[in-house]
Amino acid sequence: LAKDQGKSTHRFFTQELNNDMIEKTLLEMDLRQAISRDEIELHYQPQYDMKTGRMTGVEALARWNHSKKGLISPGQFIPIAEESGLILPIGLWVLETACKQAKQWQEQGLLTIRMSVNVSIRQFKQPTFIADVLGVLQRTGLDPAYLNIEITESMTTDVQYSQKILQRLHDEGIHVSIDDFGTGYSSLSYLSKFPITHLKIDQIFLQDLSSSNTAIIKTIIELAKNLSIDVIAEGVETEEQAIFLSTLRCDEVQGFLYSRPLPKLEVEKLLQTIPV
Ligand code: C2E
Ligand code: MG
Ligand code: MG
Ligand code: MG
């Protein structure tokens, strides 16, 4: 009996694996058409200066509006895009759309804000990465100082390569953030070698302000201050978290407490209420 059970568990397991793979392959096929079908959209989440309360920027976050399945989160489709290589055309579309949008808001005379764009490792490692970014800036006419590229710690394991790329971005006047900082096990010594402008504390530390998490957040903020890097806390949901961050003199905040990621028109409405 035990043997039979083992067999059926095994069969059930592989069946499930197969279903997962089929589901993924189908999604990948749909994702291939998503851009041309206009199904990918950007939402923008505001970021605020903690001291002045002023809006400093937005982070562009991709949304996939699947014709049959409805809204699919980036947590679901970005990994598929990365595995299949589709992240290259999608990432370029995101970059171009975000920069075009930032430029358009400036031309409408709204508050000039920084546009943060997430970049995946496949894009970062692409030999044409710098040329792609510069091409987008040229086509859209956005001042490089208002583009902020978000990379993650795990993308910087090849220190020499990362240093070269980050220096090129820096020389062009483009800002760079390290996203989800604190969970990537990377050496801290590289931070001083990389010309980055912002550190984004991983929201996992804020979710539960235990003594070890508060110690980690304090340490990250102190480290960033010593290196003259601005710190952004993301995932701020409660007043308690905000007060904690403000006593530590965290520079900027982003989170549901202030605003969810918003569609373009809602950002425009928000910006129209802010004096320039
Ligand atoms: P991320 O870059 O760390 O973005 C922050 C995520 O936290 C977003 O999830 C945002 O909606 C969410 N968030 C913001 N404030 C709060 C809060 O107060 N509480 C909670 N619980 N969550 C909050 P989202 O939009 O689902 O994106 C997830 C991840 O997908 C992003 O994490 C990023 O790694 C990736 N992603 C999104 N858009 C793109 C893109 O265009 N390109 C690439 N390569 N990755 C993207
Ligand atoms: Mg990000
Ligand atoms: Mg993050
Ligand atoms: Mg994240």
TrEMBL record:
It comes from Sporosarcina jeotgali. Residues 24-275 form the EAL domain. This is EAL domain-containing protein. It comes from the Bacteria. The chain holds residues 531 to 806 of 806 of the full protein.
